[in-house]
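quick q for whoever's on today - can somebody do inverse folding on this one?? i tried earlier but teh output was garbage lol. tokens:
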């Protein structure tokens, strides 16, 4: 089965690693270490705990293995029509995700199902798992990078009751990779380290408009609540310190990824994946909850996996118009 999964994901253009479920304890130890050293705030952890705390899928027997998958996720464009003219906005990697998640599920179920096993997506700290297993590496900007994809990918983790670990292989799958490990002094997990190419490069540090990326080499933790992605995804007024020229995407931010030399071979012209007419754009500008939007408009946002951000899209779009002219072309501001 493992060989079949390897072949299916490779043919689909996906990258993956398989580990035993025992890795969950090691991930929890790492999160505990980050909390103890105040590298991860209690409030931030509480906010995202639901996406990081592993829970066995309902109806599945004993979970034996985890499959973490990196799927290509290039940035794309969406066209809006404001009263003042058209505006194109970037959607960064990872946001449009439901179709590729369904494809991963289909591939795994097609291989495991006939053998009497099942697979289901589960919450875990997927980026940490990907780095610990050698699938990805951290950049200085705390974004993960995969060879062949740069940072233009999405991570998802699937649990299965099939034991996919070959005999004699480490079930945690961590000790073979130089990405952290046990601190020989304290006996606790050390913080994951950055990829080597970051050591002499500070491109993302200089490109970040909010100053959330640390300058020192050691560590991979950024000031998340100062990151433009965090601000874009949360309701409320913009902080007074945030400059109007900071915004570059409809939701999230692309500045550090655009500046990163590791990504230089992965940029392609963004494809336009949707267009919203003037009436639809006017509704989006109201920042309404998705359930209050007309069904056709809500369906268009759902296809982009943006319905959960409907209460901030209008605010973000208005902020973004400060950086574009009315022909929809980006204006380079000082």
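ok took a stab at it. sequence:
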């Amino acid at each position: 089965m493992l060989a079949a999964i390897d072949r299916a994901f490779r043919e689909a253009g996906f990258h993956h690693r398989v580990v035993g479920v025992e890795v969950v304890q090691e991930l929890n130890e790492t999160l505990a270490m980050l909390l103890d050293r105040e590298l991860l705030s209690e409030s931030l952890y509480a906010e995202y705990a639901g996406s990081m705390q592993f829970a066995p899928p309902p109806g599945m027997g004993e979970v034996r293995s985890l499959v973490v998958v990196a799927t290509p996720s290039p940035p794309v464009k969406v066209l809006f029509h404001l009263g003042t003219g058209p505006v194109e906005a970037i959607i960064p990697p990872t946001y449009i995700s439901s179709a590729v998640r369904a494809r991963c599920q289909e591939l795994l179920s097609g291989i495991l199902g006939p053998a009497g096993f099942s697979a289901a997506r589960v919450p875990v700290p997927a980026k940490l798992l990907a780095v610990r297993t050698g699938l990805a590496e951290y950049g200085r900007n705390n974004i993960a990078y995969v060879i062949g994809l740069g940072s233009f990918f999405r991570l998802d983790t699937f649990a299965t009751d099939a034991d996919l670990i070959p005999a004699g292989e480490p079930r945690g799958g961590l000790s073979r990779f130089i990405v952290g490990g046990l601190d020989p002094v304290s006996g606790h997990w050390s913080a994951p380290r950055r990829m080597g190419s970051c050591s002499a490069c500070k491109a993302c540090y200089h490109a970040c408009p909010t100053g959330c990326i640390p300058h020192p080499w050691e560590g991979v933790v950024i000031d998340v609540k100062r990151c433009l992605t965090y601000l874009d995804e949360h309701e409320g007024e913009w902080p007074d310190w945030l400059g109007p020229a900071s915004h570059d995407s409809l939701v999230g931010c692309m500045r550090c990824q655009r500046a990163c030399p590791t990504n230089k071979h992965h940029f392609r012209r963004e494809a336009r994946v949707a267009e919203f007419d003037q009436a639809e754009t006017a509704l989006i500008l109201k920042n309404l909850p998705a359930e209050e939007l007309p069904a056709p408009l809500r369906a268009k946002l759902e296809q982009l996996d943006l319905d959960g951000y409907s209460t901030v899209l209008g605010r973000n779009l208005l902020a973004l118009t400060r950086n574009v002219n009315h022909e929809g072309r980006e204006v380079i501001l000082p």
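fwiw Residues 2-323 form one domain. also Confidence is low (pLDDT under 50) at residues 174-191, 324-334. so keep that in mind when u check it
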